[in-house]
Amino acid sequence: MKIVSAGRWMLGAAAVALCLAGQAVAAEPKSGGTFKLVGSGDVAGFDPVSARTAAVFLHRALTRTLVAFPTDADPKVAAQPVADLAEAVPVAEEGGLVYRLTIREGATWNTETPRQITAADAIRGFKRLCNPVQPTGTPTYYIGVIKGFADYCAGFAKVPADVAAIRDYVEGTNVEGLTAEDERTLKITLERPTADFASILALVSSAPVALEMLDHLPNSPELRRNYVSSGPYVIEDYILNESISLVRSESWNAAADPIHKAYVDRIEVAFGTPDAGKTQRMIEAGDIDGYFDLSIATADLTRIMADPGDTQLLQFADGAINPVLVINLASPNNNKALADIRVRQALNYAVNKSAIVQVGGGPAVKQPIGQLLTANVIGHKPYDPYPTPESKGDPEKAKQLLAEAGFPNGIELKYSYAAGGRYDLYSAALQADLAKAGIKLIMQPGPSRTVMSQMYQNRQATNAGAWDLGMTSLRADWVGDSARTMIVPMFHGEACEKSTSNWTCYNNPAVNALIDKALTATDEAVAAESWAEADRAIMADAPVVPLITGKISLYASERMRGTTVNLLFNNVDPTLVWIDE
User: Fold this and answer.
1) Phi, psi of 562 (to 5 degrees)
2) What processes does the entry annotate via GO biological process terms (predicted)?
3) What's the chain's Rg over C-alpha atoms?
4) Rounded to 5 degrees, what are φ and ψ at 552?
């Protein structure tokens, strides 16, 4: 196992460990073959505007971005955007308010007659971000950043959620800060300097979109089946909730693409295997090549790590807090008990994080955490606002706080979580340990998509108290200058009523001010200090209970090569892996 130096924002236990499968066996990549993966289920948000980790893995093969985060074993290199569709990474002009990008000549859409990707296509990609069907989950990356985007999105919110109305609005309404200076040159004007804007441009949500995509509702089955690719692969077949097959695009121009290599002929993902143990057995048998949306089960990880020479093991620190408990501040249950900070503090003291560590794979790969920013992110300063002995929880302290809040006999809370995988195991451990502090969990497991859409992101259900506690992950959308991605979506409260990520409408003006200061800072040290202060201020309010962080463990088949993990989507790069057999 090779331990990779982590750089200035990656410390100690958070250092990335990448086991590069079989690199010494064959140095020269080969073309051909099929890359096979198995996943627990279909992706909730395939559309680029709403794509998250597993979907971003697919889009690495399907969708090119203006700039991109490279796949590199050195996290410092992986954190620096490089040119993809754009000829160069843009440099801020006019006091940090203007960015210009020229799209590479010869970069084309996979249309019947291949067509040059244009500045107008790039503008269309931005315009779809706030569509009324399924908008981006990170609107603050764009609203309040790109000039005129807030007004544009306010108008879009009033548009009927049908194909014709959306197409007419996107194609007929301008955004002041988005201009096509010529066919391939895009000018972006910002409302204020935004130091991490180049990183935002590297997200798949910022990708150009073909005109044909407006023929389908965002994220609809029709869009998935008829997706127009700009990358080296295209969708050959997509059976919802069953499988997706990608094949190399005949129109892809390798000469106009410095990022993707597209060694394998096909990429196939079969959905419907939520059992990580079964997936592991399939990989070890050579039936498939890797994991799609799960990681190695604890029992298998213990066995595999007993052999330090196993080059098929891939371990890396993604910087995520997974899991984290979200407290529904808006819940009316128990006479609005969760609006009382003492109850929220009781939850933070009651949890046995050591038990969660064991479920997650043990202290060799997981560590307890009590804050929001992790070592992958600039602004991280280690601290624990609610420490307990050996991180095993303090039931007596929790009981004392509950009694002070008017609950001397304990409290019942509705706990909704996505069933399947480790979340079942984490939840069982939480239920047992919280009970010791007088906190009874009413378990409400459900399919991931249902829990997310009908509970967490459903403002009516949230305000009505359909759930009191939820379980999710908190992770940076990229590495390095990415503190905004861990803090802004869930904790900036200025527009919380409209947010799909600030589920409980957490809104602290002092925190908002610290966030705004960090976002507009042109000096990295000033930004880092502001993010650290925001982290502490949020956790003083205790709206969440961070549990553990650490390494993710994947496994690659014996025949796979080029298995460096990309920290943007926490998996191998489907355009760089190759088969040696």
Assistant:
1) 65, 40
2) peptide transport
3) 23
4) -100, 145
CA 357 vs. chain centroid, Å, equals 21
Packed helices 524-541 and 483-491: angle between N→C axes, nearest 10 degrees: 40
Length of the chain counted residue by residue = 581
Secondary structure of residue 18 in the 3-state scheme: strand
State which amino acid sits at residue 507.
N
CB 3 within 8 A of CB 316: no
Burial class from Cβ neighbours inside 10 Å (0-12, 13-18, 19+) for residue 12 reads exposed
CA distance 417 to 413: 13
pLDDT over 70 percentage in the chain: 96
pLDDT tens, 402-453?
999 999 999 999 999 999 778 999 999 999 999 999 999 999 999 988 999 8
Q: CB under 8 Å to 260, separation ≥6 — which residues?
A: 60, 61, 64, 231, 232, 575, 576
Closest Cα to residue 417, out of 458, 453, 447? 447
Query: Per residue in 516-560, pLDDT tens?
Result: 999 988 888 899 999 999 999 999 999 999 999 999 999 999 999
555 membership: H or E segment, kind and range: strand 548-555
The helices-and-strands tally (H runs, E runs) of the chain is 19, 25
Strand partners, 316: 552
Kindly list the distances between the CA atom of residue 361 and the CA atoms of 3, 111, 357, 552, 556, in Å, as whole numbers in the listed order.
Answer: 19, 46, 6, 9, 18
Kindly state the helix (H) or strand (E) to which residue 267 belongs, with its residue range: strand 266-270
Please give the C-alpha separations between residue 24 and each of 101, 562, 575, in angstroms, as whole numbers: 39, 11, 20
Angle at 579 between CA 576 and CA 581, to 5 degrees: 160
CA dihedral over 579, 248, 37, 572, signed as positive or negative: positive
Distance CA 438, CA 436 (A): 6
**pLDDT confidence of 341, banded at 50, 70, 90?**
very high
Please, what is the end-to-end C-alpha distance for the chain in angstroms?
A: 22
Bridge partner list, 445: 417
Residue 572: its H or E element:
strand 571-572
Torsion of CA 451, 144, 96, 538, to 10 degrees: -60
> How far apart are alpha carbons 357 and 366 in whole angstroms?
6
Please tell me the predicted confidence (pLDDT) of residue 140.
Answer: 83
Confidence band (pLDDT; 50, 70, 90) for 195? confident
